[in-house]
Design goal:
The complex is a heterodimer. In chain A, 78% of the residues lie in helices and 0% in strands. Chain A has 13 helices and no strands. Chain A has 2 domains: 30 residues; 221 residues, MetI-like (MetI-like fold, Orthogonal Bundle). By secondary structure, chain A is an all-alpha fold. In chain B, 80% of the residues lie in helices and 0% in strands. Chain B contains 13 helices and no strands. The chains are: A mainly alpha, B mainly alpha. Chains A and B meet through helix 1, helix 3, helix 4, helix 5 and helix 6 of A and helix 1, helix 3, helix 4, helix 5 and helix 7 of B.
Chain lengths: 254, 263
């Protein structure tokens, strides 16, 4: 394809992705940038987003490792079906994810749990959309890990917990970190699943993405762009850090 | 043994509470009053147009990103891409960006006071709040899927077969169609499924640039939101259920294709 192919691909990439992002950065780069980013609602929204994303990542470490381990080491009827539905949050449109959660945990909840318009609702939505990350990162490593090592541990008198801590955890630690980092980055920008269930209450349940959407609606595009740039830089820093982890893991495995 | 059971029920319990029970519940809520309201909610002109628009946008975005994914994938894997690091950053950028931020980026470029917005509107070309904006937003958010599936496979298969074909006199197009593309078919199919899933379900970026004009720029996910906000529960649940059903097929396709991909 000669030089034409790469040239055309580069042009497409610049037109579709590069130019809009440059325009966004340009719109954010005003003398009011810091003012826009540190205004009380923006600060509250950014802090809440970071906090809840961190909690999401932490819960995913526990739940993801547990589910990953059960799906690889355990055996029960319907396991392959369960393994299949893990990807559902990736395939489900985010607005439907929010609706799905509202149908069970919203007003008129059949189980009498109504979390709508609370921080718990935001966390629930973040957990829903990030469910697959840690599981899918941990599974291949566990599959490659020889089960006999754990059996040997048991023969030598190790308890299940000791086995996990000393044999399994060191092997899956890196993959878990990568999965948790991806979950964190995803939760930072999540919008569709949160917008209906959070109630968008400033200083209480308003996350950064919902704030940005509101700012656009009220015509404050430079304020929205400033908050957007903070969100984007944060996610890029996390993903760059993960890249380093992945490279170190690859080197160790040789 | 007891602890093993405990772990199993803990893990499955989390899955039921977070994912399965809500999905069952939306199915129940959708058909709570029978099938007839669902059918009528999905056959209104508004719903028909939203379904048509979502499919149309997907049918434009997927081929664009497949073409880009193949050309860029080959160039990246064969180290023929100029500015490799910058390209890598740009390709992965859509994954790092909130959909809302992507929408806003397009809004600032094509809107009033934007680099292209004023020039385009002076020439009578409307981008925001019309089909081009929906296509641009959807293409942006779903851009990485095909490239990222294709590059590792290309790196793994190497260039031996392609060079052999070239030695035997095959032109570069023949080599691509008969050697490279067949080797990529499962990875490509997987990438297409992911791209289509994302395109059909995209909400955040589209909600910023579409203007959500009923019967004109309202896609199916936007319809779900609008109906929910207008207290039309059956309407929202019906459209949401239709999208969820599509996702189930997509997950099934992902499961089958990821198995094929590994062999």
């Amino acid at each position: 394809m000669g030089a034409l192919g790469p040239g055309a691909a580069l042009l497409y990439l610049c037109l579709i992705v590069g130019l809009p992002v440059a325009a966004l950065a340009d719109r954010a780069a005003t003398s009011h940038f810091w003012e826009a980013v540190t205004s009380p609602p923006a600060r509250a929204a950014l802090e809440l987003t970071i906090e809840l994303s961190a909690v999401t990542a932490a819960v995913n470490v526990v739940a993801g490792v547990l589910l990953g381990w059960v799906l690889v080491r355990d055996d029960f009827p319907g396991k392959s079906l369960v393994n299949g539905v893990i990807d559902l949050p990736f395939a489900l449109p985010t607005i439907v994810a929010g609706l799905v959660l509202l149908s069970l945990y919203g007003p008129n909840s059949p189980v009498n749990v109504n979390v709508a318009q609370s921080r718990a609702a935001v966390l629930l939505a973040m957990l829903f959309v990030t469910l697959p990350f840690v599981i899918r990162a941990v599974q291949p490593v566990l599959l490659a890990l020889d089960e006999e090592v754990e059996e040997a541990g048991t023969c030598l008198g190790a308890s299940g917990w000791q086995n996990f801590r000393m044999l399994v955890w060191p092997a899956i630690r890196g993959a878990t970190l990568v999965g948790a980092g991806l979950a964190f980055a995803r939760a930072l920008g999540e919008f569709g699943s949160i917008v209906l269930i959070s109630g968008n209450i400033p200083f209480h349940t308003q996350v950064a993405s919902v704030l940005i959407s509101g700012q656009v609606e009220s015509g404050d595009t430079s304020g929205a762009a400033a908050v957007s740039i903070v969100l984007l830089v944060l996610a890029l820093v996390v993903l760059a850090g993960l890249e380093l982890v992945v490279r170190r893991l690859a080197r160790r495995r040789g | 043994m007891a602890s093993r059971l405990l772990l199993r029920f803990g893990a499955l319990g989390y899955l039921v509470v977070l994912l399965l029970a809500p999905v069952v519940m939306i199915t129940y809520r959708t058909f709570e009053h029978g099938v007839a309201p669902v059918v009528s909610a999905l056959s209104s002109p508004t719903a028909h147009h939203a379904i048509y628009l979502s499919i149309l946008v997907t049918l434009i975005a997927v081929p664009l990103n497949v073409a880009f994914g193949l050309v860029a994938g080959v160039a990246i894997a064969r180290r023929r891409m100029p500015a490799g690091r910058a390209v890598n950053l740009l390709v992965n950028l859509p994954f790092a960006m909130s959909p809302v931020v992507i929408g806003l980026a397009l809004y600032t470029l094509y809107g009033r006071g934007g680099w292209l917005g004023d020039w385009l509107s002076a020439h009578g070309i409307q981008v925001l709040f019309s089909l081009p904006a929906l296509v641009l937003a959807t293409t942006f958010v779903s851009l990485p899927f095909v490239v990222r599936e294709v590059v590792p496979v290309l790196e793994e298969i190497g260039t031996d077969q392609e060079q052999a074909a070239a030695t035997l006199g095959a032109g570069s197009m023949t080599t691509f169609w008969r050697i490279t593309l067949p080797a990529l078919r499962w990875a490509l199919a997987y990438g297409v499924v992911l791209t289509a899933a994302r395109a059909l379900g995209e909400f955040g970026a589209v909600s910023i640039v579409s203007g959500n004009i009923v019967g004109q720029t309202q896609t199916l996910p936007l319809l779900v939101e609008e109906r929910f906000r207008n207290f039309d529960a059956v309407g929202a649940y019906s459209a949401g259920f239709a999208l969820a059903l599509i996702s189930l097929f997509i997950v099934a396709a992902m499961t089958v294709l990821s198995r094929r991909k590994e062999h």
